[in-house]
Amino acid sequence: MGLHVDEHSNYNVLSRIATSDGHGENSSYFDGWKAYDNDPFHPIDNPQGVIQMGLAENQLCLDLMQQWIKQNPQASICTGEGVSEFKDVANFQDYHGLPDFRKAIARFMGKARGGGATFDPERIVMSGGATGAQETIAFCLANPGEAFLIPTPYYPGFDRDFRWRTGVQLLPIQCHSFDNFKITEPALVTAYQRAQTANIRVKGILVTNPSNPLGTTLDRETLRTLVSFANEKRIHLVCDEIFSGTVFDKPTYVSVSEIVEEEPYYDRDLIHIVYSLSKDLGVPGFRVGVIYSYNDAVVSCARKMSSFGLVSTQTQHLLASMLGDDDFTTKFLAESRRRLSRRHKYFTAGLHRVDIKCLESNAGLFCWMNLTHLLNEATVEAELKLWRVIIKEVKLNISPGSSFHCSEPGWFRVCFANMDDNTMETALKRIRKFVSPGNHTAAAQAKKKNKRWDAALRLSLPRRFEELSIMTPRLMSPHSPLVQAAN
Amino acid sequence: MVKGAESCVPLSEVATSNTHGEDSPYFAGWKAYDEDPYDAASNPAGVIQMGLAENQVSFDLLEKYLDQHPGASGWGCGISGFRENALFQDYHGLQTFRQEMATFMEQIREGRAKFDPERIVLTAGATAANELLTFILADPGDCLLIPTPYYPGFDRDLRWRTGVRIIPVHCSSSNGFQVTLQALEDAYVKAEGMKIRVRGLLLTNPSNPLGTAIARHVLEEVLDFVTQKDIHLISDEIYSGSVFSSDEFVSVAEIVEARGYEDCDRVHIVYSLSKDLGLPGFRVGAIYSYNDRVVTAARRMSSFTLVSSQTQRMLASMLADRGFTENYLKTNRERLKNRRDFITEGLKNAGIECLPGNAGLFCWMNLAPLLEEPTREGELRLWSLIVHEAKLNISPGSSCHCSEAGWFRVCFANMSQQTLEVALRRIKDFMKNMKAKQEK
What we know:
The complex is a heterodimer. In chain A, 37% of the residues lie in helices and 12% in strands. Chain A has helices at residues 16-19, 31-38, 62-71, 86-91, 99-112, 129-141, 157-161, 185-197, 220-233, 256-262, 296-305, 313-323, 326-352, 380-394, 421-435, 442-447, 482-485; strands at residues 51-52, 124-128, 147-151, 169-173, 202-208, 236-240, 271-276, 288-293, 357-358, 366-370, 396-397, 399-400, 411-415. The radius of gyration of chain A is 23 Å and the shape is globular. Chain A has 17 helices and 13 strands. Chain B is α/β, with parallel strands linked by helices. Chain B is built from 15 helices and 13 strands. Chain B has helices at 13-16, 25-35, 59-68, 82-87, 95-108, 126-137, 153-157, 181-193, 216-229, 252-258, 292-301, 309-320, 322-349, 376-390, 417-439, and strands at residues 48-49, 120-123, 143-147, 165-169, 198-204, 232-236, 267-272, 285-289, 353-354, 362-366, 392-393, 395-396, 407-411. In chain B, the strands form three sheets. Chain B has a seven-stranded mixed β-sheet, sandwiched between helices. The radius of gyration of chain B is 22 Å and the shape is globular. Chain B starts with 12 loop residues before the first helix and ends with a helix. Classes of the chains: A alpha/beta, B alpha/beta. At the A-B interface, helix 1, helix 3, helix 4, helix 6 and helix 11 of A face helix 1, helix 3, helix 4, helix 6 and helix 11 of B.
């Protein structure tokens, strides 16, 4: 075997998809993850370690689920009470999914959205998490080379999920801090026209509501603008509502499904929802993704494609039971919102005390933190410089706005629902120390030019902004220890 | 509201193509079954499903295990580990589960090959594994060579979203449908002639639909061929635990090891628990590759199709019980063999020959003598009679791309013994009627 690489050797050459970096992992961003993996915080064993705040997980209510499972042994096919179901469950591979599971999901989706809309179990299609759902919907709606418009800032995982194997493009709709990153009609029109000029066919719009990373919900007017625009241009609207159950404060959540039900003159064949239990329930390991489309042809196609990513029937069975327990889901959603609200208030108050403002938000598992005042210049380079300091010296893994394609440098996403109260307190302490005036803190030093960096951290600057696709460090979806994956 | 049979808003070409393959007779028979399913008590005249390669003969062993180990495979009464398990979405998969999968694969091969857990990539079923490998090994417009007859699902799994093509390697009944070097060469030349780049060869071993384990010398020839052509080899060994005599199965892994791992960067194995353990609902597939770059790429791509952490944990626990797995594998093989013997005997009594087989959940049945004309149309006409008159859903060879008309795949492990007896009676009656018709 040896090091000889034969240019003409077929088997040494994998596909273009396999050898591209569409997987999104080859980015300097991962220094943050590596830093965490190499030195993970633990209150007792490693109190000086890096605290993971780059992971949008919801760990606040797993105890409630645990309790339910303990009280309902029949929901598991491994217990004495439930094993009689084992054979039928294990054997069932119909891509429609277990009927009770679909019913329970449809019901839960309605409840998570505050009851403003109802969902038809027949339109529920499974997928391998929301990751799988996004890819499947892209395969269904667009051809290679065609594009979807997407408001910035957006979840970096979309770059992989929507584009990697599909060949579909994502083109930004630029949103700005001066109007709280609202999606405006002029911005929509601009993005659409830019694509036209570049001869790129736009097939749809992809929005996340509630937004990741902003933590805000779309108001009715914006939703109507989006639906109306989609109708006018005859393009699709895909709404990722993965965080719909995490709305902990006013304004009340409005799902696109409500617009569909309220406005009969809009073509519902254009409207598709992506959902998952990974955030609302906090069970990302179970890989429960959902495509909900109002378009029969899309339901049919997506269902066939779901063969590539069905939910384990063992998991379907458990969740059918759990989500079918109305009492439990009502209590769960209420308590989850309460705990998120409490956590959010505590964290943002702690930041406010040291003059760090966050975008006002009412949902999600994170804050969109404004550190623009700590940058020596309003550039991505400066943002990344600051970010490296925060990882290396403050020992917090937070996510730089540039990896979310934010149009303005200096914003950071900080997750707060994936840790206990004490860890949260520790994180706040570190932040306070970092920004407190009068100390020769890293923050002050960061503002100086020509700071020399630790050679162990790769400093890889993003390329110049391309017109239509921004090459910046990308944030992988938070489930891969990249130390192992990096090559 | 614009509503109608066809939406005015275009979907993708992938969505509107019919490469999903569901219009094939393979699935049409299933529809017939769905509309009129046999039930011993409530619908004794219904269609018996013999088109579904499922293994239901050994469920009782699994149930017994769970009965005797309540809660051990789940989170238990203490629910310890629920939280960590529910949060675990690492695409490397649960370490313990990967280890158990590697060991289980070794057990099936009775230690004749070693599997490194670090080379196992988990996917939601072999369906996903095969598609994923295709995305990694081939570009749109390229092709994979596949010996015929082959599992109809490959038309979708390997081609639909990938844009990769399949060029068949034609096998003939003259030598029991074994792959020959000539057939391989012919297929390769054909691809070259069509200016299609061949990226790999995909084998299913043991074969679906033939029900035979591939002979060692054939595997050696195949490995030489792919090496010479410098292409990949995918060995789908999903039925490896269903070879009735375990020493009759030779895995490509054994050949790789015998050759000292030389040039094995091109070899990749697909596995799943859907057939051997009869757990298709749990969506447990695996890719085992000797190529580091493929492992890395596959792992990243598996993000779209991870195995539920709940299921990984349960199965890790179950598979860790070596006594259980040894007994299961042994008993399962015996029962499958008995089933196979029973059905081939019954078919023989009805005047039907099957290809001699030593593996799998099905027989490859020869009804060519019954055809009015040795064509695909003739075969499908006969098949239609079987589905609608004999009320048996079996799979026509043409849906498996068999180059000779008249062969059918008949599954025998997805029903009770009693149902199998009913099916055999119907076949016998059907044959009697056909003979009578022919004599007129």
